[in-house]
Amino acid sequence: MSIARTTALSAALGLALLAIPGTAQAQERQVKITGFGAMSGVVRSFGINSKAALEAAADRINRSGGVTLGDGAKGKIVIEFLDDRCNAEEGISVLRRIASSEALVAVGPTCSNVAEPLFGILQKKFGDAGDTGLQFPIFTDVAIKIGLAKISEWAFRNVPNETEMYATLFKWLKATKPNLKTIYGGVEENFAHSRATWYAVMKEVAAKEGFEIKGESKWLLEDTNFSNQAREAKKAEADIIAIAAHPFSTCGMLKEMARQGVKPKLLIGLTSSSSTETLQGCAGEAEAIIIPTSFAPINDQARAAADAVSKFKGSLDLHSGAAWENVFILKKIIEEQKVMAKPDTVKADREKIRAGLAKLTVTDGLIGKSKRTPDREAIKPYLFVHAKAGKWEVLHTPAVN
Amino acid sequence: MDFYLGLLQIIGVHTLLGLSAYVVLLTGQVSLAQAGFMAIGAYVSAMLTVLAKWALVPALLTGGAAAAAVACLVGFPALRVRGLMLVVATLAFGEAVRLFFFNFDYQIAMGGIKVGPLGGEGFRQIRYFPENGWTTFQVMVFIWLTVGVVMTALWWMDRSRVGAVLRAVGEDEVAAQSAGLNLTAVKVSAMTLGGFIAGVAGGLYAHYTTHIEQGNFNVLVATFAIAYPILGGLSNVFGTLAAVVFIQGFLIEGLRFLGDWRNLLFGALIVLAMNVRPGGLLDAQTMSKGLSALRRLLDPAYGSAAARQAIDGLKDAGAMFRRLIAKWKGAFGA
Question: pLDDT by residue (tens digit) across A221-234?
Fold first, then answer.
């Protein structure tokens, strides 16, 4: 055998050996879940944490054997995450990109002003042949503005019900702190969620519980100067100051209030601010602020999830906690609905996932079970946390859980 | 495929926005009011299709006309100032319009729910396209037909006396005035035309995004509006298109996979493009060379069989568009 022939045969054998694991890998099917949200801008921390939570949850599932597909084969969950910069037009483009890929479901977005148009371009009623809207399931983890999922039957959310949370909070305050009579608001006017939470939730439920509304100060998400707003708050002399804003501007306002010596008897914050960003930004000024939240590391499961997410360079809060839960809920649906995860079953698989999500009446969560409503929203368990010495501590767990 | 069609929709609408600024820039004025005009067109046309149940085309034209009327009114006082003062004046106007819609509530009960603009929370459920059976492809073609009409009109205008007048004012106001041109009339006309185009762009934007709010029409959008024609070049309308493709197609969508690095590269690449092509991405010389090459290609004496096949293909596409237009009669209210 000539040297040339030996070399050629060796090369062929080598190539064949290299191809074996490749073939095995090709047989291992992938279940693609694409996350999307703000990875840049003022609210980028939400996107970063969601991405980490999705990846950590997928890693946990894949390490324990993956997902069982419709034909009994095992599949691995593959996570991709795209940045929509909290911009409606980019969000639509990102969703179309995801729908054009082999992704079976999307988890996102971060911002409610992106969620509204996104859900609007989806088919409103499933199976309506006259509606050419996009047919793609979305399982939202962060965008929390009330009542968005009813826009489309392809839209599902695993976000807390703020109306119920704040109603319970104000009822509890009335019962336990009867000396508090008046409330003043601070609202991030140009952020759909913050605005809706103050005007349609906090203000309404506080008034219903008999608190006197002394007015509100307004600012924008990007604002860095809060001197007028803090002055207005000081002038109002309210017992409670409720800040409906995200961590960045919440901290700006709290720091300015501290500088001007505004000391209400109680501070209340927005659900989205019960995160590490608030404590990193202004732990001292936020001391004792009370926030209702759907996540706190109160049990082994939640603590283990928080540890897993931190290994993926994120932190677990009420939003990224939902992203974590979503992956496990989707795993269950994929298995129950017998999703195939083959290139030629993408459309059918998406419909199966939508059907599975629509059927849910209760889901497992990190701090307890969540109920599902007919309009595709969640009623999640919740608790009240307060900032204490740079940490979030559980202050009260309502009996409704 | 759906993604690329969606991207073409975005490029089409942004091209219209850029062209609205292009007209004003021809007269040597820099307007940061285009986002405001776009907002007016968006809200007016969306209210007409959603609340008044108008057909799309009359709603778009009315939205454009409303924006044009406001542009005309704004043009008289604003265009009496020049240079940086005009930039500030138009910026202030754009912000005033945005803040107007920030506080604008007009909702009526329809089918048990309230619909219409709701201040800072915006205006949702502008679902004319999906509810009338328009596919993503058809929406894209409709948008590009609109872009085609506007570009053709501006291309023709550029080569007519009107274009010469606009450019004369832009080149040297004193000389133009000495030649007997009414500067205010010329500038206000350009502003009005720009307002109309921006209004139509806004109407299309509202209908393909299905939800609008004041934040969609901020100063960043106004900056993009003037950046497109400046980056693309003011020698012809195609420069604006080239810049929109560069920014929306390449910098925003093409580089999305870079994650955080995309935002960093975004500005750097724009600066680089302006340095490499100071006359614009598609300056007069490049355009002239391109047109000569196209003429040679289409000339039967030189053209290849492939070129002739391409022309036949274009004819087939024309027939397809005619069929689509027949389908869209409903959009015209017929």
Answer: 888 999 999 999 99
Q: What's the structural domain count of chain B?
A: 1
From CA B224, how far away is CA A92, in angstroms rounded?
19
Residue A65's contacts (CB-CB under 8 Å, 6 or more residues apart) are A74
Q: Tell which residue, A375, A378, A359, has the closest CA to residue A367.
A: A378
Is any Cβ of chain A less than 8 angstroms from the Cβ of B260?
yes
Closest CB to A92 among B124, B131, B209: B209
Quote the minimal CA–CA distance from B7 to chain A in Å: 7
Question: Is the confidence at residue A3, as pLDDT, over 60?
Answer: no
Query: Does A292 score more than 70 pLDDT?
Result: yes
B26 touches B204 (CB < 8 A): no
In total, the C-beta contacts within 8 angstroms joining chain A to chain B are 99
Alpha carbons within 13 angstroms on the beta-carbon side of residue A312 total 23
Say if residue B83 is exposed, middle or buried (CB neighbours under 10 Å; 0-12, 13-18, 19+).
exposed
Query: Which candidate from A83, A92, A120 shows the least CB-CB separation from B125?
Result: A120
For chain A, the average pLDDT equals 90
Which domain, by its residues, includes B105? 2-332
From the CA of B208, how many Å to the nearest CA of chain A?
A: 8
Closest partner CB to A190 (pick from B120, B131, B208): B120
Size of chain A in residues: 401
CATH code at B11?
1.10.3470
Beta strands A369-372 and A378-379, pairing class: antiparallel
What is the pTM for the complete model shown?
A: 0.81
In this structure, how many other beta carbons lie within 10 angstroms of the beta carbon of residue A63? Answer: 8
B 111-150 residues with CB below 8 A of A? 120-122, 124-127, 129-131, 133-136
Predicted confidence (pLDDT) per residue in A378-389, tens digit:
999 999 999 999
Cβ-Cβ contacts under 8 Å for A178 (sequence gap 6 or more): none
Written as six digits, the tokens of B141 are: 């073609």
Query: Cα B217 to chain center, whole Å?
Result: 13
Q: Which tokens belong to A395? A: 């202050």
pLDDT digits (tens, 9 = 90+) for A111-123: 988 999 999 999 9
Whether residue A124 and residue B127 make contact (CB cut-off 8 A), yes or no, is: yes
For residue A188, give the H/E element and its range.
Answer: strand A182-188
Helices (H), A127-237: 162-176, 192-196, 203-208, 227-236
Please tell me whether residue B9 adopts helix, strand or coil conformation: helix
Contact residues on chain A for B102, CB-CB shorter than 8 A:
189-190
Largest CA distance in chain A: 99
Q: What are phi and psi of A13, to 5 degrees?
A: -65, -45
CB A168 within 8 A of CB A396: no
